[in-house]
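A student in our group prepared the protein record below, which I am reviewing. Here is the record exactly as it was handed to me.
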Amino acid sequence: MDGQDPEVRDDIPPRGRDNALLQAADQLTAAAEILVAVSARTAVAVDSRLSPPLLRALTLVGTDPGLTLAALAERAQVSRSRASRVCDTLEEAGLLARSPRTEDRRGVGLSLTGRGRCALDRVRAQRTAWIRDALLRMPESDLSGLLAALRSLGPSLAHGHPEHSPQTPWSPARFT
């Protein structure tokens, strides 16, 4: 090895690589904004009360039943009072339940109700169908390239940005 970074390609001049990276970042940002909008639209289509913050809380609790309010607030990067208000709204809608934790009787665990699990499953199914339909409209060569790029990009995004909290390398929606 000649001491060069193996990730830097010799066939792209530095200035051209910088421009390509900026264009790719802009396009990914635009795609991310569209995906957030798709997620919000599918949530509202399933239940008109499901705003992005409520959906985020449902998703976090759905992936970690028994999550405490403090842990939910930390993962969503919001104040405990904001997380509590979101949980109050979800509980009033019959989508979330609070129950005493067995390992710490003073603590309260959060879990989805049957209606909450059903709503979350329906949102995910509808969002997946919407995205699948968009992918079906893509030319096969573009789809193959997209899949290859996502396989490479995923681990890099999961690593996170040095300025962001290591316990939440991605946080698509906060309770704001």
